[in-house]
Design a protein that fits this description.
Keywords: Membrane, Transmembrane, Transmembrane helix. The chain has 495 residues and is an all-alpha fold. It is built from 21 helices and 2 strands. It has one domain.
Length: 495
């Protein structure tokens, strides 16, 4: 009852006219910023930190919460329509979402993203209210071996099920891992694969890689085939989801929350790993008769719900432990510090009114997102009717703008072009793009956890499976890799 009373008090605070206006402004800013490739919600909050210095803390955090959820959905808009992820957690949505848009189902893809976001965010935020202490207790017990095993499962699972062949999938993964090695070794301090360019010492930002491989690569591919394939009018599709669309989407929505929330609550979590696992799970469940590879609505509903569930879960370590699970968590911790508030286990006790107002604002912002974006889905889908030369010229412009805005370095523009050419070559030879992105994201994290696990075990390899959770996860990875061989052997025996 104390929890419900505190939450009702947070709603009373947020539903005041001033705070409700700040929530609406946050949702609008977040949606607009999420649409721009490379300028994600974390950067939006960071840019607004100086502006909110004179604001009352509750109003500022209500607006930050709206920016967070709005930015998460804004990234899905460009992923579906333009194959250009607005932020890294929307990378997986682009795979099936853009194929749906090319089939004339853009409005349905956007609608399932909107409704899935609402369902997942509402359930995830409710889980944040009631299950936060339990999830925190579990997350704290996991060590480096378990974290490394989680990343191994994510890498092997997705690479094994994506693409026309495993050789191409693992080749793409190797390219991503190589790009992830660029920068300074965190242990020895030596530069790796920087080729004497000092700006590469900090590595290549994942947003630059994602925008280059997806957006620039797609634009170059379209430009290469523009004269050969005359443009065909793309139908916008029905403005709402049909009963069949809802039937195919509601299970991925629920599964997405169950995958995203606990993984988002891990201190080393984020939205990238669970969305990848969700996509792999939905593709596996759909089987060979599914529409994956041609535009499956499950491939949009599952990752989008997972993304929002992970976003809700990321507030667990931030509010309870003072540990950021992603970039925006780190920026919001900086905002707490700006107001002289110390995040951690005592935050709910010392700043209970502020924390519960922030949680309540997530519910309110979620409703505002649904009300604003569901009617706009057909309007967003009409972007596909823009002539392709104009559309892809705009994509290249905003891609370059977003890549430059990450670090304000001209070198990032060169990296954008080089990786864009790599994306073009990968499309030419049929290499899937997602394993490369996954390798760039998880490669450095997996290396860090691997080294930490080996240090704890004094270099003994057995330290990698010193936790029960790690053993179970390694068994899952081995099953995924060996299952096709087992099936082939069984078919030969039957023959």
């Amino acid at each position: 009852m104390e929890t419900l009373d505190a939450l009702l008090g947070g709603f009373a605070t947020v539903l005041s006219p001033v705070n409700l206006l700040y929530a609406l402004v946050g949702v609008l800013i977040g949606s607009a910023v999420g649409v721009l490739p490379g300028i994600g919600p974390a950067m939006a909050v960071a840019l607004l930190l100086p502006v909110t210095f004179g604001m009352e803390p509750t109003a500022a955090f209500v607006m930050f919460g709206g920016i967070y959820y709005g930015g998460m959905f804004g990234g899905a808009i460009t992923s579906i329509l333009l194959n250009t992820p607005g932020e890294s957690a929307s990378v997986v949505t682009a795979i099936e979402g853009n194929l749906m848009a090319k089939r004339g189902l853009a409005a349905q893809a956007l609608a399932t993203a909107v409704v899935g976001s609402f369902v997942a965010s509402t359930i995830g935020t409710a889980m944040l209210v009631f299950l936060a202490p339990l999830v925190v207790d579990f997350a704290v017990t996991l060590g480096a071996p378990a974290y490394f095993a989680i990343m191994v499962v994510a890498l092997t699972t997705v690479t094994a099920v994506i693409g026309s062949s495993r050789v191409r999938g693992f080749s793409s993964l190797a390219l991503g891992l190589a790009i992830g090695l660029i920068g300074i070794d965190s242990i020895s301090g030596q530069q790796r694969l920087t080729f004497g360019v000092p700006q590469l010492a900090d590595g290549i930002d994942i947003v630059v890689v994602a925008v280059a491989v997806f957006a620039v690569g797609e634009a170059l591919w379209v430009a290469a085939h523009l004269r050969r394939t005359p443009p065909r009018p793309v139908p916008v599709g029905r403005p709402w989801m049909s009963r069949e669309d809802v039937r195919r989407s509601w299970k991925p929505w629920l599964r997405g929350v169950l995958i995203g929330f606990p993984m988002g609550a891990l201190p080393a979590g984020g939205g990238e790993i669970p969305t990848v696992i969700s996509y792999a799970a939905e593709k596996r469940l759909a089987g060979p008769d599914g529409e994956f590879g041609r535009g499956a609505i499950e491939g949009v509903a599952g990752p989008e719900a997972t993304n929002k569930g992970a976003a809700a879960g990321s507030f667990v370590p931030m509010l309870s432990l003072g540990l950021p699970a992603n970039a925006i968590g780190a920026v919001m911790l900086a905002a707490f510090t700006q107001y002289g508030i110390q995040p951690g286990p005592l935050l709910f006790e010392r700043e209970g009114d502020l924390v519960w107002a922030l949680i309540a604002s997530l519910f309110i912002g979620n409703v505002l997102l649904l009300v604003l974006n569901l009617p706009l889905a057909p309007v967003w889908a009409k972007l596909l009717r823009v002539p392709r030369p104009h559309l892809y010229a705009g994509i290249l412009f905003f891609s370059a703008l977003g890549a430059y805005a990450v670090n304000l370095q001209a070198v990032d523009l060169v990296v954008l072009l080089v990786l864009g050419l790599l994306g073009f070559v990968m499309r030419r030879f049929g290499l899937p793009v997602l394993p490369l992105i996954l390798g760039v994201i998880l490669g450095p994290l997996a290396e860090e956890q691997l080294r930490r696990a080996l240090q704890l075990s004094n270099g003994a390899v057995s330290g990698l499976w010193s936790e029960p959770v790690a053993i179970v996860l390694y068994a899952v990875a081995a099953l995924v890799l060996l299952w096709p061989l087992v099936g082939r052997y069984a078919r030969r025996r039957r023959a």
